[in-house]
């Protein structure tokens, strides 16, 4: 065997060792990933938990008739304070402890909305213990979670903190309040370790429709409906929809700039989400609250929007002039809870069926490589 042959064999062996090591590492990461499962939402929609990669996740088994049910209020406080920073709260109703969650999906959703104004993500009822336990909770309570506190769920409102990669960090038992300093410290530490996230504020008519479009895109963590352009004291739906404020109905897109660019968001906004040539209206929705606008947070966003509008104008993409306004963002005001994820919760609504769903279908077809599977 000559020297060249020996070198080739050595090189092949080294390459195989590197491949085997990387494969083993990938398998190890996969087994530790608590977000590799699919679940059903409270409206029975298939949800891939991998969509939450990049978020810090707090998974909670909940119930409506428990002594700890009041923790819904503190979970909502956590959501309102930290959702913008990357915390996603996932609530999983369970009826295994004293029969304290007997309701149907619609009853549970109604209870959470009316009693606690919940706007974080609710899922379908699951088992968390035993042979029929869902795969997520088998993972959270088993050795794959790789935490010291393992074993079956003991009662409602146990909480699992999961980092942006899907690794379980810590388990908090039922008696620990969601606003306990220990839990807050752990959440803030996990958020600080997660990759950066950015926001885009866009107005393109009814926020139900635009929200549903951008929720489809990979790299988008969340989309929230709200108001911008006016004052805090009149940022409510009744006043805004009456056209008596300076607000526009807007969406706030929280996204990972490493996975989807601001330019791509603008592209979808101008080509799918709305018609930028309609002045103070979208279809039959009329008034300045339905205006086309980009609310920029800095000069970089402003220039990006100006450049894209000029590009569309030069290419003569539309028969009529683009009337989109560029407005400096003062503040974003979150809309009422019943507006959030409206299309997901009301797919049979006639307005949703005629206005929003065609746009959802269009973005999934036009940007098939960029949408969530």
In short:
With 373 residues, the chain is α+β, with helices and mostly antiparallel strands. It is built from eleven helices and 15 strands.
Main attributes of the structure:
five-stranded mixed sheet; Glutaredoxin; 11 helices; 2 domains; six-stranded mixed sheet; elongated; 373 residues; Peptide Methionine Sulfoxide Reductase, Chain A; alpha+beta; 15 strands; single chain
Could you outline the blueprint of secondary structure elements for this entry?
Elements: H1 3-32, E1 38-40, E2 46-48, E3 56-62, H2 71-82, E4 87-93, H3 105-116, E5 121-122, H4 135-141, E6 159-162, E7 168-172, H5 181-193, E8 198-204, H6 207-214, E9 220-228, H7 237-241, E10 248-255, H8 262-273, E11 281-282, E12 285-286, E13 292-296, H9 299-314, E14 325-328, E15 333-334, H10 342-345, H11 350-366
Parallel strand pairs: 3-4, 4-5, 13-14
Antiparallel strand pairs: 1-2, 3-6, 6-7, 8-10, 8-13, 9-10, 9-15, 11-12
């Amino acid at each position: 065997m000559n020297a060249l042959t020996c070198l080739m064999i050595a090189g092949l062996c080294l390459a195989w060792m590197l491949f085997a090591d990387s494969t083993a590492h990938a398998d190890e990461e996969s087994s530790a990933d608590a977000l590799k499962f699919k679940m059903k939402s409270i409206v029975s929609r298939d949800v891939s938990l991998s969509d939450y990669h990049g978020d810090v996740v707090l998974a909670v088994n909940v119930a409506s008739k428990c002594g700890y049910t009041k923790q819904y209020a503190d979970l909502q406080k956590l959501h309102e304070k930290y959702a913008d920073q990357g915390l996603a709260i996932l609530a999983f109703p369970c009826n295994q402890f004293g029969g304290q969650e007997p309701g149907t999906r619609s009853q549970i959703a109604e209870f959470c909305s009316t009693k606690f104004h919940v706007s974080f993500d609710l899922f379908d009822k699951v088992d968390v213990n035993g042979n029929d336990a869902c795969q997520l909770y088998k993972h959270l309570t088993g050795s794959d979670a790789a935490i010291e506190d393992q074993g079956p769920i003991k009662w409602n409102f146990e909480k699992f903190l999961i980092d942006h990669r899907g690794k379980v960090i810590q388990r908090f038992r039922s008696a620990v309040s969601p606003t306990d300093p220990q839990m807050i410290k752990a959440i803030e530490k996990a958020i600080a370790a997660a990759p950066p996230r950015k926001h885009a504020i866009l107005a393109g008519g009814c926020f139900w429709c635009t929200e549903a479009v951008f929720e489809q895109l990979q790299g988008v963590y969340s989309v929230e409906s709200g108001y911008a352009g006016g004052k805090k004291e009149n940022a409510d739906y009744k006043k805004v929809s009456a056209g008596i404020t300076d607000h526009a109905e807007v969406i706030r897109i929280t996204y990972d700039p490493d996975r989807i660019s601001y330019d791509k968001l603008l592209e979808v906004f101008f080509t799918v989400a709305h018609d930028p040539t309609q002045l103070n209206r979208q279809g039959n929705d009329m008034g300045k609250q339905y205006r086309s606008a980009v609310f920029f947070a800095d000069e970089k966003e402003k220039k990006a929007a100006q450049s894209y509008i000029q590009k569309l104008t030069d290419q003569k993409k539309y028969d009529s002039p683009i009337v989109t306004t560029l407005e400096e963002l003062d503040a974003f005001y979150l809309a009422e809870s019943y507006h959030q994820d409206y299309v997901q919760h009301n797919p049979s609504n006639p307005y949703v069926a005629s206005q929003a769903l065609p746009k959802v279908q269009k973005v999934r077809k036009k940007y098939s490589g960029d949408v969530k599977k």
